[in-house]
Amino acid sequence: MTTPQEELLPSTRRALSHRIAVAQAEGRTPSLVAAVVRGGRAVWHGARTSVDGHGPDENVQYRIGSITKTFTAALVLRLRDEGVLDLGDPLEKHLPGTGAGEATIAELLAHSGGLAAESPAPWWERTPGSLRPELADVLGKQPLRHPVGRRHHYSNPGYTLLGSLVEKLRGAAWEDVLRREVLEPLGLDRTSTRPSAPHAGGWAVHPWADVMLPEPAEDLGLMAPAGQLWSTTGDLARFAVFLARGDDRVLDAETVREMREPAAPAESADVVDGAAYGLGLQIQHREGRLLVGHSGSLPGFLANLTIAADDDVAAVILTNCTSGPLLAGVGADLVRIVAEAEPRMPEPWRPLREVDSSVLELAGQWYWGTHAFALRLTSDGGVSLEPLSGQGRRSRFRVNGDGSWTGLEGYYAGELLRAVRRGDGTVSHLDLGSFVFTRQPYDEKASVPGGVDPEGWRGIG
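RE: above sequence
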């Protein structure tokens, strides 16, 4: 159930309702249903429909198409977290004989395995899966279109392979594993591989006339892990909370954060558009806001899930038409409306419970050559290093427990930061992946690579 809509201001609720009303009218879709999540729960639900006196609610199922891929990715990452596989493993190690085994599991998750976008004709989304009973029928005689790992090329057969990988390693059908390991723990009891009443019917709307044609709802067979699922805004709102925060019953916060990081080489056009792909999640930089989630489409249905983790806001939109409203834009707008009208309240500042004096003495200004940086202690026990100019390399660092820290982002991700001390225990300098940071620019008392000119600083004379 959603929480009372009074949790959002009346003006915010009206703006959200107006946005989906415009989307439904201009997109010419039979119905459109949406939800907004904030603070870990659904706080708004809205619907527009062409049927007078009736509107779908948060329990009405729609097909969600490729949002299914994010569920499949979660199953694969569970196997990784359990140590059953490594993301760097080639598929051949665990699922031999496919003809596409050179691609790693990470590359399949990120659509950089070089595979074709679609299975061989006839088009899999509008024909029964029984036409493709074997993986060879899904992949065809030439499964690769590009060198493995060189470019992002969206691939539906790639996620069929990941679904088959899950089945092989779990010894059970993908559908059963999904229900047991994701749907039931998260309470997604209105998400299923086949429609369960109440559910919407899928329609094609004529591009030049206000008439409709029913679309077939095929069982996709082996292609199910790429796009089979039906769900509701209520369930997808809960799934959005999971993707933003993690849930130790399925994947912890660190793993879902990994899913949200870019993992595939970007095309030139993607760089211009600010788009990337993670491990089962699409990433978009839009109007200064980082958005993650996934879109979905199957004949008769469109779907979108959009999360702005920094704003703690997410949006879900489902509709029952083959083409029409551009839901990625609608989702971004719903997030923006809430984030701008009712900005996230920051957590109250609180002092640290305790601090190590040997770490506290490192806080403050440091220099890499002549570049000034500030080292700060963070509330999670780590440190951050950032340029005082506001421009340049910066990173947060995780404490390792041995007097060192590991970089978490940017240029310094994975690099080791440590304080180098003299024989008397005083700090000489910081070493960050061989970069020396000193308390003064080119401090003559520290070990500076290349040494310091003995005549010191001078003017032009």
